[in-house]
Records
---
Amino acid sequence: MSYLEYNVKTVPTGLRKVLYINWALVFLLAAVAGSGFLMLYSVAGGSFRPWAEPQMIRFVVGLVIMFTFAFIPPWIWRSSSGAAYVIALLLLVLVDVAGSRNMGAQRWLNLGFMRLQPSELAKITLVMLLAAYYDWLDVKKVSRPLWVLVPIVLILIPTALVMKQPDLGTAILLLLGGGVVMFAAGVSLWYFAGVGALGTGLVSAVMMSRGTKWQLLKDYQYKRIDIFLDPGSDPLGAGYHIMQAKIALGSGGWTGRGFLQGTQSRLNFLPEKHTDFIFTSLGEEFGFIGTITLLTLYALIIAFCLHSAMNNKDRFASLLTLGVATTFFFYFAVNMGMVMGLAPVVGVPLPLVSYGGSAMLVLMGAFGMVQSAHIHRPRGRI
Amino acid sequence: MKRSPRDAQESTRTITRRTLLLGVGQAAIVAGLALRMRQMQVVEAGQYRLLSDKNRINIRLIPPARGLIFDRQGVLLAGNEQNYSVDIVREDAGDVPAVLQRLAQIVPITPEEIARTIRDVHRHSPFVPVTVSDRLNWDELSRVAVNGPALPGVSPAVGLSRTYPLSDVLAHVVGYVGPVSEADLKNIPNPDPLLQIPKFEIGKIGLEAKMDDALRGKAGLKRIEVNSLGRVMRELDRQPSQPGENIQLTIDARLQDFAMARLAGESAAAVAIDVQTGDVLASASAPSFNPNLFVRGISSKDYNAYRNNDHRPLVNKAVQGIYPPGSTFKIVTALAALNSGALKPTDKIYCPGYIDVGGRRFHCWNHAGHGWLDVEGAITQSCDVFFYEAGQRAGIDTIGKMARHMGLGERHDLPMSSISSGLVPSREWKKQRYRQDWQIGDTINASIGQGFVLASPLQLAVMVARLGSGKMVRPRLVKSVNGVEVPIVPAADIGIGGAFVNSVRRGIWGVVNGPRGTAHNAKIADATMTLVGKTGTSQVRNITAADRAAGLTGGDKVPWAERDHALFVCYAPFDKPKVAVSVIVEHGGADHGAAPMARDIMLFALTGGLPPLSAYPAGDRKTIEAQQKALQLYDFTTPPTTRTRA
């Protein structure tokens, strides 16, 4: 639809597309993934197995996916967004059904060659569908209550499904990612102010109800909040991991203890050191220089995406780019905040660095769509 | 729909404005993260560095001692033995293959063990110790300890390993443990963290597997201090592990051992149960296997020897083996016909040696015919024609119902592996299985326990126990757990008319004790222990007319694997039943070697020791004495050495 407004002949075709790829972004992604390989090699005690080698293979597969997706024009992504969203929902339901048979919180489906986490897929398909929705919707109607309700429902369905798994981290990322697309599309700020006020009210109600008859959460849930606020209160339980993570990060100092020299990870004090807590190993071995470098790489990725989104006159393409970039942003911001004791431990991986196939492949696919939006951006009026 | 240029411009402007807002927000968050990093890694770095250097306390799991298994008298059936092993830690060893080569020069390690260790160390995290060998003796262990500096990452360890002092006597019942495998972990929902310990032993088969949760125990924790290289300096404190529960079986190990010795040489099974409580006193399946071979991984040579043995030592024939019950099933047919009113205890049927039904001739085993018989006489003489007729009168539905009532066709719930449910055929079953209607010939075959009917020795023992006690006895295997007796559930009355049960009982009295019985060789001379029982022969191959003419009716003249199975079910004493025994000798032929075996097992169970010669008929005593001398029995008077819990 919106592409009809532009001279599609100015969009590059065939191999010329290669020239228009945002190569800086590709380089940044490779640099982040590279630091991931380094850390996975290190936490395995200086070995490519069991983590670094499969991760490298997945990154190569991810690159292939990214370039393939980049060459597919965004209008195809737009028209397939509804189907993609439904497929992700079906997979979430499937994992729920299959999960109940196997007990415990099962979040992945076994595809044979890899384990797919449908919740990872849901984050991107939600952003796709919302971008397509606002592309379709008349700009004047964006803030009308009924048209605000539709995206809220679209966000809440997958959020409810992942909450059931239970996977609080993904649920938060879905809410934030969806909210940002609504924000960027121009939904009145009053709605966001309202949600903010509601959220604050809810949190204070939850905290004030503690110990009274109408207590809103279970005792153990309050205990978790206590542990987040003061990890020292439970040094051998859940707080132990946060304490150890902070010790690992802090003891890195300016330059770190050196590659393969981190005692916290080598002596196995760190939990989940190859997945959610990998950032602490980086901090221990490469110090402040290492952590600030990785943060800069992430920030540059976001900056490139925001720049691309602002300069893209196609509404779908720029909203999609924004949505992907922000989802990516929340990944690393929540993860870093979590291991540094700024956010509760909710189980969000460090994107492209933590060991895990689903997040890696889905994110590379998402950046493929960002590249697609970048390559095929409208370059002139009819 | 094409957007108006004004709308398009508006859209672009909104997105740009909001994106800038977002960018500012994100930049603020990034700045916050960067400040936090600086705070932790630059400002407070010294403090964290100090904590890190002091952070030398690690938590390790202590594996619990596995629960012990005893027999009803307290004889140890499964215990734990100290074993000496060497472990290797990948990250300390560095070059694992080179270190293992050096180790191989000091202590005997096979190339397979080296290959397996190299495979295992890469499967686990680098700091997890992997066992190289656990078959070392004290000398070898000392040599490893002395050569410590030349063997980085290698450490000697003392652990507990499962041992079965009675070797093959109870192998099928108790089963064995083995190192936990990937396949095991996949099958266990929410696996205990203990199972992640490499080579941790879990029950693989038998009671060890079925009651693994109870036997396993709970892991303990120890806090240890390590130096900056990760080497253990000292243990700070420990929360001891909780040993698994001790399980006492209803099995009498001495009786079991006697039964195994008595069955030796045959492919056979015997089950003895207490007719009042259902306690399984013995469950023997011969030949057996040595479970100790399986604990640390059986060699393929030993395993193949078991696999290729045509007597199938790995199969628990007592509960897993199912056989046509043959004439022992006549007990069921008689009860069914009597209880349904189709046959009165005084009704007589004429046996001319055969019966013609539906254009087919069914023979009695006695071709000359038995003449006029009532049900008691028919059981005593095991007349086939009588039961062909009684079975037809009762009908397959009534017979099937009675068979299930007597414990056949039911998977008795005992903590043993591969318990078979056998088969009590029905019209629906045949329709489903063969897509054919039930034929009258099927009823006739079923009436004498041939055709589709299949039962295990355990089920036959339950059947005869229910007949003897007149109660719905259920078998049980676990007598007490951690010293707490498992309560005995009182059995309900069998609910069959006393006159009917008594005529069947008198019938099987005649089998052993009457002038025309088929099992005189099972007679007990001691009147306080009168044994009553029923013989059975189950055909392994179809007998053709030519075979019959040549006299090849499943006896000794045909090859072993084609000979008939011999069965015997019995209980004793007749007037006050205590024990029921069932025996099956695969391909035992028609001479009913099963009956004397059952008698000897019965006498051992009733007298609590080697049967006194006075219990046997005077004529048999010489042969019995010689036979008893030849039996190879365990010496239960000396306690097993070093087989206590550490």
---
Amino acid sequence: MGIRTFIEGWPVYRQLTGTDPLGRGAAAQSERSAELTARTETADRVARSVCPYCAVGCGQRVYVQDGRVTQIEGDWDSPISRGRLCPKGAASKSLVTSPLRQTKVRYRRPYGTEWEDLDLDVALDMIADRVLAAREQTWEDVDDEGRPLNRTLGISSLGGATLDNEENYLIKKLFTAMGALQIENQARI
Amino acid sequence: MAEAHPVGFQWVMEAKRRGAKVFHVDPRFTRTSALADTYLPIRAGTDIALLGGVVRYILENELDFREYVLAYTNAATIVSDQFVDTEDGDGIFSGFKPETGTYDQTSWQYAGQENGGGAEDTEEARETAAGLRHESHGSPIPGVVRRDETLQHPNCVYQILKRHYARYTPEMVERVCGIPQEKFLELARAWTENSGRERTGVLIYSVGWTQHSVGVQYIRTGAIIQSLLGNIGRPGGGVLALRGHASIQGSTDIPTLFNLLPGYLPMPHHATHPTFDAWASSIRHPGQKGYWGHARAYCASLLKAYWGDKATPENDFCYGYMPRLTGDHGTYQQVLNMIDGKVKGYFLLGQNPAVGSAHGRAQRLGMANLDWLVVRDLFMIESATFWKNAPEVATGEIVPEQCRTEVFFLPAASHVEKEGTFTQTQRLLQWREKAVEPPGDCRSELWFFYHLGRKLREKLAGSDKPRDRALLDLAWDYPTEGPLAEPSAEAVLREINGFEVATGRPLGGFTEARDDGSTAMGCWIYSGVYADGVNQAARRKPRHEQNWVAGEWGWAWPANRRTLYNRASADREGRPWSERKKYVWWDEEKGEWTGYDVPDFEKTKPPSYRPAPGTSGPEGIAGDDAFVMQGDGKAWLYAPTGVVDGPMPTHYEPAESPLRNPLYRQQANPTRKVYPHPVNSVNPSPPEEHSQVFPYVFTVSRLTEHHTAGGMSRTVPPLAELQPEMFVEVSPELAAEAGLTHLGWAHLVSGRAVIEAKVLVTDRLTPLRVEDRIIHQVWLPYHFGFEGLVTGDSANDLFGITLDPNVLIQESKVGTCDVRPGRRPTGAALRELVEDYRRRAGITPERHAPVVTPADGEGAR
């Protein structure tokens, strides 16, 4: 390292001679931080998304590298949020990459004391069988005056309000066709 | 707002920077209070008394925006002389039926319309939460009404309103709410001074307002003030609901609710909707004016979207397949039915009732008494592990080896692992792009329900049972894509938007819906979101490249309107009320409505248009009827129908209160929905005996760092670290009274449960002087449960189940309790403590709190 480089590497020198007299920006930058590149710059792609917490609807930009989410930032184009996120929205990368997330189907048999593994397709098949059985056991064709009921009160559902509109649409459509009308949502709560 | 909707709050700060005065009303001093000009602490559950005081202040001082009020509200309309107010009925309106606890609305009608068909059966309306239907359209009313434009007729709405609130004086506000008179007057003065031609004021509430036994009436009171002051349909005005979940607005628009179909169409009722015609006519109200006229087309097009080619005009579009309501099938009724063994299976889809619903113990006991439970979530939440980790396992009420519930936990895809739309709080749909594939077995709800439907249909193939036709004939052929066979969300959005059956052409809006089977439309109010075959919700034109209304960012229902009823931003003649508050106006030269937003009015209907007498449908709406979805085209200061607990909001005490109602003999809402069930109970309130067993008021709300039942925050390391513990905030005065120590433990007891929390002694809570008594309130966050990175007792366990009669939402913002120092007992001793309190309070499975307060009850005045 030459003497000149040494002196120029001294923050006070840069503060006095450069464009950052208060020493809160470029003058104070270390060599290491100068060499860093933001994950947002190296991302393979960016998805335009929306924060999943409250209903303000802040815009999010989801940065992806090698098929993994590497960063989530506020969308500065959004007229709603102007790029800002609150502590929860700012933590959404931690949400979607949380080590606590469950990624395998878990099954607890009746009277069981522990979880067991179960194949997703098997689980779906077992659930379909149980839906049909509950329907058979509790079906009501007509009321006591012979008016149609076409329903089961043996099946319930309660959904959260972070479901997409398209999802809610299919859920309501399928349950209605099943005759299962006890379907509810956080919107009631 | 600064706590739970921080990014939305930036706009309040912008307004403040431009000179707006900000008032914050809350039982607890929060970050919002810190940034407001004036903070008003309030006794939880008394907002109608406060807002009613503002109504009185406006009317007594004639501070209403008179031109607006005469033009756009029903202030001048004459009401039936059969109507008797709560002032003359000691807290009960005319038409009350004590045997059902509901009203006959006949006497509430406008004069001359007592038998005009406007009155609804409020018993059925309550059981089916009919109030929710009015989210997309107002209530029916015959179009022709008698009016007195001088507002002097003793039975005109203006005078009735004035008499109704005459006793809601500043002194009364202080007595009921605990708000000092000078602070109340500061609020009333600022609100009225900042309304009118040149200025507008906005009312913002968080949806904790809905969680009261008079929740709908809270919001009604706000709407009355805003209508009197001319603050509806105008920029900087309105009543803004801060909804708490990413797509909770969407969850009612395209409901997963028992009583609604998409677009607020009612789920058929077995008695009132036996046929397609009866169902469609009950929505359309033939002969009435307003935008009701086309409802038959929305009904037919929905069924066409459901049953495709099988739905024809000849078979009433398969209406016969629809399941029918017989009463209340809401979530709380369901849970009680689970405890009673009537429900076999339960789906939980991103929802955690073991923590998030009122009366957590009832929730968990219900789940422990099912044949099977499907939990779909990102994390292992309390509602999935109740069988081994619930508090009831510790008390011996749930024994894993004896609990038969079969539990399927299916991991869900996160918001970045699927595409689709959220509808945020301003009715704005925003499309999300998929960033990555979901890991492992994680799948979207779209995947789960599409493939579940496919399996069900495969298993039923060949069935000749009539009950299976609805599933087998269902239009269920969505294209799938990618390695996981994910159904196309865009195809579903296209069906929601609607299309022409013959050509598949996406419809441009709901006016293109037909009742002849030529159109299919999954949700009429969302029609237009896929106009021209373009996903309008995916629009992202940067804010700097468009006007401040930003109409090209996402898509808002209906018809991409950002402010509803914006015809009211212009005067009767269609001119802006002022240059400053210009928004939508009539362009005389072009002969059309124009402005910054999509006009909420027929584009070429001039302000001078007057319908011929007797004209029905949209043609019956005059050129100055700004409230086009109302049967009379007016904003309602007085609601002759549509609200089951009264045409005007009235202060009732919460179902649990330490105080006697200072205004009326009737203590609590006489129409509130109660559930007499052994597991449910209500703590006694005056004039009943033993209310002093639970002397303190508790309320709950959110922390900035946590979300609802904690499933998306107590599982996320940075958020868990920021708020790691369950705590209770108490005032220094209460800490001294109850012997609580800062950072020590306390436990809180209600008739349902006992929970413990760390004590935070803070002057954010103030003892209130109410009726010459000191009322102590405590505050709790409701996010905690027994799973996740950080755990704690659940505040919702303290609540019982009492619901608002209009929408069947529970009262979970106010209750009574006792507060004691130290930790709660564990094991069997825990239930013994609760039982001891119940004995002292006279709570038994047979005891039901009187819904109608007895005439000569103890303590009655």
---
Amino acid sequence: MSKLFDDEAVRRLEAEREEWERAELAEFLERQPERKDAFRTDSQQPLKRVYTPADVASIEWEELGWPGRPPFTRGPYPTMYRARNWTFRQIAGYGTGADTNQRFQYLIAQGQTGLSVDFDMPTLMGYDSDHEMSVGEVGREGVAIDVVDDMEALFQDIELEQISVSMTINPTAWILLAMYVAMARRRGCDLNRLSGTIQNDILKEYMAQKEWIYPIRPSLRIVRDTIVFCAREMRRYNPINISGYHINEAGASGVQELAFTMANARCYLQEVTRAGVDVDEFASRLAFYFVSGSDFFEEVAKFRAARRVWSNMVSSFGARLPESGRLRFHCQTAAATLTRPQPYNNVVRTTLQALSAVLGGAQSLHTNGLDEAYAIPSEFAMKLALRTQQIIADETNAGSVVDPLGGSWYVEALTAQVEAEVWRILDKVEELGGTVAAIEAGWFQREIADFAYGEALRRASGERAVVGVNRYVDPPETEQPIEVHRLDPQTEARQVDQLRRVRAKRDQARVDSALTRLREVAGDETANLMPATIEAVEARASMGEIVGALEEVFGRYREQAVF
Amino acid sequence: MMAADAARPLRVVIAKVGLDGHDRGARIVARALRDAGMEVIYTGLHRRPEEVVHAALQEDADAIGVSILSGAHMTLFPRLIALMKEQGLWGEVALIGGGVMPDEDVEQLLQMGVAGIVGQDATPQEVVDAVRQAVRPRR
């Protein structure tokens, strides 16, 4: 192990600091006091006035190391963006599969390099488009998918082996994966050549995003089944995107976001290894997803700390392959920081957040539309957001050097500070009996609600600045209207009509027997649900039917609502 | 409401209707109203309009605050209003909305008689004021 600076140099610096504080600093503060008594990060981590080698004196060089080598602090790959840029992955989804396919074709024509699908609320929650809970929601916030035919329409004329596809889907992820596999097989694709991801991170749903169907235990089993299936049949596919994004957007701090995400990651590692699968067989396919928020340096530190925490965590599960501990993450700029007044300011916010993600070493990025606080993005807003990434990639030179902020005394000290805080929270979760027990006790939910309320009060008092909202406010009549995306009012009728036509012409006996088989498999905790689900979607069973069949076996989750 | 009720704290049902799980706003609103001395009944997520109106009736609420971030507000608010009319609550109980909505939708909802729309940038105090404002003519 080697220290970054020798002890003698550090002692000299500390003596110098004291001397500087007594002289220049004291005199200057006398004349001009600082803006506030204490400076903190967005996560409320205390900050020093200025950082020196003394602040990183306890850090060993091996904790930073080389890019592409454990603990990957400096980046998951040796060359990072010098080989190729991060993936420009703008999420899109509205209306029917055919409607969203048009937006995909547009984004690919504009230079987008990966696809990301947003689904409508009924699809996310496992209801068919003709269910009474779906009224008013079909195709509104995302694309509506009921049967495998909708999936075919969504990816028409898109080469599945050529582009990676991310699907933001959780409690119903395994069904969407089954549809994707069924479609790929029908097209004659090699499953081992498909790259992409399903979000499939059910634990953070109970904590933050609140999209769930079944109780926690059977839901974890479904996640396990998808991880094991992909490890064996889809070697390049990420079966899960362990997500802090929603935890942060629900109101958690950046540090809590990372800590809670890692608590979930640890739980998935336990779940799959308990089923007898070696950690080296699947850990390298677990991907992550974080927000890039407004505290520029804290976010960079968060991404760097995330890589170090994961590498050490995976080692503790006995991993021998270095790539098992290589954290790769998708990043999205922070929707919750965007404002309705002066919407063009949002472009500036998003640009800074995107730069933070790039300096932190993200593998793919979605930049938000300036109209986020109004509706789902217009085509214009998405193009501008994509151009934001392209300008950073092609004009700023930011990607020419790996981990450009590495070695900054401030960023290294903050990385270590975030990391220590994350392990402190992880220990706390262990004390509470682990992630599932802490969810059941409502612990994460309360922590998130508390930080969110504190943040609302800080915004209200002006302690937390929001330009255009609590300072530099324009009179309402001067606000420039912006054009927003409108849903075609016929969408719901079109989608329901398509679903009914599929139901009318399918082989009902085949559907019934596939659903019966699925219920049997569900009843055997050691069996894998994926093959029977693929069989059911190939028989044209709808998502709602599959969800309903398993609900008979698993039951439904009920939340204790706290505020 | 009877004049004698004027001394009791305001009772507010805070509800999430529809399928979206974005409850950050609803929970902040619930806490802000409680901290301001109101009695808050939070329904939790994924409620049907029928359940929300029923809760308001059972709880003798002065106001219902409904948060929707799925974009389904133009379907769900008319449904809530119709149900409130059926139950004789319309005009007695204030209906207030919150969430992400385009301007022209906000305008239309106000015309339908929704007492106020609380945006994502509202401070806790502004939320409390909006509820008091909406309830005042009825007490």
